[in-house]
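Continuing the batch. This is chain 6 of the set; chains 1 through 5 are on the previous pages. Same settings as before, nothing changed between runs. Recording input and output for traceability.
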Amino acid sequence: MKTVLAVLPIDIPACPGSLPHPSHESCVPARDRRAFTLRPLRLVATILLLVTGCGSVLAQSPDVPTIRVTSGLVFLDVTVLDKKGRPVVKGLTKDDFLITEDHKPQRIFSFEAPETHVVDASAADDNLSGKAPLTIFVLDLLNSSFEDFAYTRYEIRKYLATQPARLSSPAELMVLGNQSLEMAQGYTRNKEDLLYTLDHVKPIYPYKLMNGGFTVERLGQSLDTLEQIALQNAGVPGRKNIVWFGHGAPNLTLTFYDAGEFADELMQDVHSTTNMLVDARISLFVIYPGIPAEGAGIPFSAMRADADLGDNDPFAGDVNFGLFVNETGGKLFYPHNDIDKEINQSLQMGTEYYTLTYQPHNLDQNGKFRRIRVSLRDPKLRAITKAGYFGPDKNASVNPQQQKMLKLSEAVRSTIPLTALHLSLSNLVRHPDSRTAEVTVELESKNITLLPADDGKDTATFTVAAASLKKDRGILASKTENLTLVSTTPHPYRLPKVLWQFPLTIRVPPKTQSLRVVLENQDAGRIGAAELDRKAIDAAPATATPMP
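Output for chain 6:
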């Protein structure tokens, strides 16, 4: 009997007749709402980001992340604006600021003025040890239209072209697609590296956005992206500014869903992501591309970004990126059409800031939201900073997603063979014009766990992670996707030795010393890895990058 194998993306199909979501984007059948869970839909997005630039994340606990305030300090990066909205960068001292947490005054422990937040001029381009803020450019191709991509890329290029050859602080470029999160360019101060990478980001057709039936899945992938960036930067000093080009996650109104497993799990994810962003000192700036169509309503995100939601849980009614902007002390730009100017405004707010710390008095582990307010003695001045955090929760369960990410991050950087799955790499071809390489991944059938599906076929779900590594095993570029292997044979023992072959494209920055591919059989937890060294990369034939 012939075995037929196919690779399918993990998607939720369109479901006509579903109960409509208030945002007109949801596609969750009414009968499935109670049983619907978020985790299986969430892309295991770039676990490799955990170790970029800093290996301290590997030593952290795999439990549900919470801000570390029980015995430490809360860091607040505060932008001060005058009545005309211009940043105030001189003349203020620690005594000019007042901090409260849940209306209780807090003693300011330390103070840094804006002029201290600069990079060491002699530091290497990828050095992250200074006090200068870091910038993470995110191209959101998942939640934005195909037409917006070219204009957004043009405007980003326009901005970068005006910058000096060596940027004032490191920046990186990430790309969120339909099925993947890619770190296209790691932290660098070399402007040309960012421009080169930007020019070689391929456009995609956002089929999940255009279909209209992937609201929950797109929300999950967007939350994953914020979470991965927070994990990447958890051990890196200083402020980080995410400049997100696109519409961000779609709005999800929680009152639409019955209370139950889905709502509880989503809230746990949102609270976890919030604390991770606060703990990593990350601010989110969202830039909507293009001008909205005539008669189009104001998106929920734009409305929530400027709203004062009081002292309660800001995510109690809705979940959207406007709330994360508000929560992290950033800004959402809508409905303007000058991306170049908005990038400058974002980075000005994220660069000209004061840093204050305090030690909170509330040590209750009840998981409740704790509202932070920063004001100035001069009533003409306004402070913008993070809105608060969720206290530790003694009843929080272990987060299996984080456990998996930590496990895979170790596998990516490991120097020892991982053979629970048998895989090999062949047919390597370099594309110097785009600094990429294409390789064929071969997976043997040994140790593969296939599970029966409803249609009578057997399937196996895999996380596929690829990375370009430096000599010290640091990540230069990475890409992670989820794929499903489908077999039509009812007899898995008849499978051939080489079960699966598929091509994989990897970015190869100039300092790359090896390429490593890691596969995990998600249903069984088995991991395999294969690697090519610099000698094999140099010996591979070189051709022009094929057309998409």
